[in-house]
Amino acid sequence: MNVLVCVKRVPMVGARIVLSPDAREVDVRQLGFTMSPHEECAVEEAVRIVEQRGGTASVMTLGPGEASEQLRDAASIGATHLVHLVTDGREWDAVATAEAIVNAVRALEEERGSYDLILFGNEAADTGDYQVGIRVAQALGRPSIGGIKHVALGEGTLEARREFRGGDEVYDIPLPCVIAVKEGINLPRYPSLPGRMRAKKMAIEEIPVEWRDGSLRTERLRIPVEPRERAEILGNGVEGVPALVALLEQWGILS
Amino acid sequence: MTTNQLTSMYEKLGIPDAERTSGGEAKRAVIIGAGIVGNSLAYHLARLGWRDLVLVDKGPMPNPGGSTGHASNFIFPVDYSKMMTELTADSTAQYKELGVFTESGGIEVARTEARSQELRRRMAAAKAWGIPCEMLSPEGVAKLVPYVDISIIIEGLYFPTVGVVDSLRAGTLMRERAQEMGALEVRANTEILGIDLTDDGERVRTVRTSSGDIDTDVVAVCCGVWSPKIAKMAGASIPLTPIVHQMISVGPIPLFADTVGEIVYPIVRDMDTNMYERQHGGDMEVGSYAHRPIIVNPEEIPSIEESALSPTEMPFTQDDFDPQLQDALELMPDLLGDERVGVRYAINGLISMTPDGHPLLGETPEVKGLWSVAASWIKEGPGIARAVAEWMDGDAPEIDLHEADIARFYDHQRTRVHVTARAREGFNKMYGIVHPAEQWESLRPTRLSPVYDRERDLGAFFYETMGWERPYWYESNAGLLQKYEGRLMEREAEWESRWWSPIINAEHLAMRDACGLTDLSAFVVMDVTGPGALGALQHLAVAQLDVPIGRVVYTSLLDERAGFKSDLTIMRLGHDHFRVVTGAHTGMTEKKWFVDHLPSDGSAQLSDLTSSWSTFGLWGPRARDILAKCTSDDISHEGFPFATCRTIELGGVRVLASRISYIGELGWEIYVPIEEGAKAWDTIFAAGQEFGLVPVGIGVYATTGRLEKGYRALSSELTADFTIIEAGMARPTVKKQDFIGREAYLAQRDETPVAHLCTLTVNDHRSASGVARYMLGGEPIVSLEGERLVDGKGRPSYVTSAGSAPSLGKHILLSYLPTNVAEVGQQLMVEYMGESFPVTVDVVGSTPLFDPENLRVRS
């Protein structure tokens, strides 16, 4: 079973986001980076599949040199191969990103055989385009489904489940296929120290890519002005109980 | 505070009505920052009777997002600094009283021989300060911490009283106590927008906050890493920088699954790798001071809202930590190498780092009423708060805070460049093996004497003192080594020979035989002038200053409890003109002491002339012959007696000559305008050649020459912990004029002292391995049975100063001893590097071992 997971390096933001002076980007000078949370789950899922079935759990990213950190993060929890489509740091739109991934997948598959399963996070934590997975599937001519919170492998097929309007939708998809997963599909493990050490030494296959102008461009980001939430302390210890009870009654929780 | 009280306070401070109206609410004091320090300070001020306090923090309670919130919260009780050790001890007692202390024990492990020796040195410090500890074999370590791979360690130093605290809980309890006393209002989520000064720009008046203005005379900046930013609002500087300390937490550790409480296993400090491993419930925290220094500008710390975790828990930079992972895995391979154990939390935690590693405490010298209570670890927080509260309350703090006084810095040391350079340099020394004489390397040279080039050409080995480059010895004197062979007390052990040269002792002997010329340009020179000058100085000095013009007075200055505040010389140059001269190291705190006590009517002024005057010391039996060749003025013993000063011609320049000596020889301190300094030096140097004049470094001036004469040094022997009487410096009478500390001093004179400052010499230097060892200071003095010596006030005996006495062929140790052993001829031991060496008490009191009659200075 050969699984490929595509991940994106995104800033780890706090409650308030600071924008660059031209308001086209998030100001990341004081921020750390991570891969999108859905993608962490995708990597965990790939590692679990390979732990059960054998095979490879490859992780690919398209991003600047620093995005190798996210590849090593993936390696530290069990990814077996790392592929880096190295950019010059400019933001790529979904069309161009999908195209670069497709090219890389084709080249890699030619060399070492087909990926049975390609996993994406449902959407990137920063741009949230919801497009790259479906575009890649379309270009590769493989079936695809998004919003998945459970997968189970059969023989040559995969059962994928997602929540929909209070119920579950269950799909049976032939392999190879492309799946976009959501947080909740699993609880990703923390990296162990030996895992970190292995990740540090693991080779990263670098594939240079040329930026190209896609059709989407960010004009401006805007942060909505939200009224600041206020907390009120009802009281300390036992003295606070009457006020708490009154409030719970007011909300109809107690009667 | 009522309006009436406020008005009367303003009147007392001499602030006119017009300046009082800012429309804010009035408070006795505003404490900014609700970390461990701010909360503790609020409590201690309240305990001392302060009311109308307000505690402000931009964040929420109980964890507003500062460094307290991510601290590893463990306390190792020993530090080479007595002050830090005492602050830690006091803090620990306070944490225990609050019920938030858990004793776990702690072990510092050695992987290398050098560290093994360092642990023995630490053991001596622990013994000096009365902290229990014992050396453990690797097997002994394994018994307490079974998960350590003992094949890679040589031994461990076990401190049974190490523990962890809940610092957030402690802060909450302190705050609540202050509130229960009705003394404190707490304002969380409140930003400081500005600090306004009185119209004369001298003192704080109003703190502007996002929840309104607060009028106050006292602002305490307890803002940790944000302190520089807050102080800047008032035009003051708090010279610290935020720096990253990386920490990860890994778990769940199967071994810890069944342990009860926060911690059961002793904390391990892996000293050689600059790391620690500390159990925290089911996890192990691994912290490091080994990574590259990562400096953050205080202005660039993200806000609470912008932070993913908290402002001081910055994004972890994995690459910096990777080498440390390897080290941690080596030490605890099974526990940390378990594949089931994961990194659950990892931060670049911000902590405060100062240029010299000590906290920044006290009123800022720039702005009256603006107090810095910054750069504290968890282990000192409550102790610092108590001491500063006492200080704010107008009393000398019980623990001597001189080393931490924020007034200690010179202007250049307050620059961002200086602060960051020294923080960068100091960071990796956190667990380092730091020699007591180790010198800083960055930003040198900064302050230069006018004869720096000449000294460099003479092969000077420079030490740095508060920015000044000072020759410690001169390679040009290497020829003297042969002349004095056999008398040089050469040091065989590498440790003691570090930052030392036998040339120091050769220079010493040459000076005693003929004459030496010493560059003392680092002296702080301050003139106090005006009709109120005499009165102002009389109010500070123990000695009588109403002396004839041209007299030089050596005097102590005391604090309110009659502890030593300063020790210096004052020359009376005119009826209303006094020149104060003191050492570079303490000069700025002393300057603040003088400035703070100038009369409010403006009748006396202080001018800091340090950058105007160079000072050279010309001392030795031939000093008069040499000076006579440079001047036609009368410098005979009768014409220019001891302890007098006057302006004389010296070649083509005029200098102020002062006949005193800190090394016990005939001679003069020569004060010359800086631009003429080189000329004066050349004149003396040329004249001295035929008399055997040699350049002499500070190694002689500060150590060998001084110790042979039993002269006491401020901060070493003269601290706030001991009295004039105990130091053996009491005069037969006390002047009738009042001075600060007089009342306490008179009371001390009525008491029978429980300790005496003694001069001891080492009988036998041979260690068990046959190497001669020479103590460097700080070692415990113990009985022949190895028992600690503690006087009737609980103060231990330790070496306050140590050094060669080349004229006597002895190694001298100064130490306060309890009266029962303070007897000439008493045999005792000094503990050094894990061994005991026999010593003899040679002098009780201040009689010098060399030239006890003081004939030389009066010849």
General description of the model:
The complex is a heterodimer of chains A (255) and B (859). Chain A has helices at 37-53, 68-76, 94-112, 132-140, 193-201, 241-250, and strands at 2-7, 9-12, 32-35, 56-63, 81-86, 117-121, 144-148, 150-153, 157-164, 167-174, 177-181, 204-208. Chain A has six helices and twelve strands. The mean pLDDT of chain A is 92. In chain A, the strands form three sheets. A seven-stranded parallel sheet of chain A has the order 7-11-6-1-4-5-12, sandwiched between helices. With 859 residues, chain B is an alpha+beta fold. Chain B is 24% helix and 26% strand. Chain B contains 21 helices and 41 strands. The interface between A and B is medium-sized, with 26 and 31 residues.
Summarize the entry for a quick read.
Chain A is 29% helix and 27% strand. Chain A has 255 residues and is α/β, with parallel strands linked by helices.
- The count of β-strands of chain A is 12
Give the DSSP E fraction of chain B (strand runs of 2 or more residues): 25-35%
Gyration radius from CA atoms of chain B, angstroms: 28 Å
Helix content of chain A: 25-40%
List the helices and strands and how they pair.
The complex is a heterodimer of chains A (255) and B (859).
Chain A: E1 2-7, E2 9-12, E3 32-35, H1 37-53, E4 56-63, H2 68-76, E5 81-86, H3 94-112, E6 117-121, H4 132-140, E7 144-148, E8 150-153, E9 157-164, E10 167-174, E11 177-181, H5 193-201, E12 204-208, H6 241-250
Parallel strand pairs in A: 1-4, 1-6, 4-5, 5-12, 6-11, 7-11
Antiparallel strand pairs in A: 2-3, 8-9, 9-10
Helix pairs in contact in A: 2-5, 3-4
Chain B: H1 3-13, E1 25-26, E2 29-32, H2 36-47, E3 53-56, E4 74-75, H3 82-98, E5 101-103, E6 106-110, H4 113-129, E7 134-136, H5 138-144, E8 155-159, E9 163-165, H6 167-180, E10 184-187, E11 192-197, E12 204-209, E13 212-215, E14 219-221, H7 227-233, E15 241-251, E16 267-270, E17 275-280, E18 283-288, E19 313-314, H8 318-331, H9 333-336, E20 342-353, E21 360-363, E22 370-374, H10 381-392, H11 416-427, H12 452-457, E23 460-465, E24 468-474, H13 480-483, H14 494-497, H15 502-513, E25 515-519, E26 524-529, H16 533-538, E27 552-558, E28 564-574, E29 577-582, H17 587-596, E30 605-608, E31 613-619, H18 623-630, E32 645-650, E33 653-658, E34 667-673, H19 677-688, E35 693-695, H20 698-708, H21 742-750, E36 755-762, E37 781-782, E38 799-805, E39 810-818, E40 827-832, E41 835-844
Parallel strand pairs in B: 1-13, 2-3, 2-14, 3-10, 6-16, 14-22, 25-35
Antiparallel strand pairs in B: 4-9, 5-9, 6-8, 7-8, 11-12, 12-13, 15-18, 15-20, 16-17, 17-18, 19-20, 21-22, 23-24, 25-31, 26-29, 26-30, 27-28, 28-29, 31-34, 32-33, 33-34, 36-39, 36-41, 37-40, 38-39, 40-41
